[in-house]
Amino acid sequence: MSYLLQALTLLIQVAFSFAIGLFVIRVLAEACRAEFQNPLSQLIYRYTNPVVTPIRRWVPNWKRVNLAAVLVAWLLSTLSRGLQQGLLGGRLPAPLGLVVLGTADLIDFTLVFYVAMIFGWTLSSLFGGDRRHPAARLLGQLIEPLLRPWRGRLAFGGIDFSPTVVMLALLVARILVVGPLRALGYDMGG
């Protein structure tokens, strides 16, 4: 593969990951009922609303999950996969394979994103970060639903191992869920 294609693929991955990240954070923030007055929440809503609002007319929320934002993130993930496959492989996979690969990529992105958030939260607590900062408050509200069931149950010698256990569970889910989905997508894609 030429160096120009590698650079273009990297730029595609970064641009699409940033956009997908915005919509994933929006879905997670709404599902976790994160503080809306947080400046970061306001920023995310401001940049995602023009895309999500028209789609919400046809795709309603399911419980606390904004399905319109999930749909946009999935479409971006599928488009990113299609562009990368088209640039790297020279051809697109079959449409059904592309749909499955886009789904696998979105699930993988979300799981890795959660691992990164929990890891960042844990590091900031080790170094005494300011918990009142808008980013720290939003981060805490996003990861709390995953950590809450394990808090206190996995504490030994004054150290809470719940973040480690949750990160390990997310990485295992990545292997057991995303791996087979990707294999299925490649099989269906030809």
TrEMBL record:
Pfam families: CCB3_YggT. One of its GO terms (cellular component) is membrane. The chain crosses the membrane at residues 6-29, 65-84, 96-123, 154-177. Coiled coil: none annotated. Keywords: Membrane, Transmembrane, Transmembrane helix. This is Putative integral membrane protein. It comes from Frateuria aurantia (strain ATCC 33424 / DSM 6220 / KCTC 2777 / LMG 1558 / NBRC 3245 / NCIMB 13370).
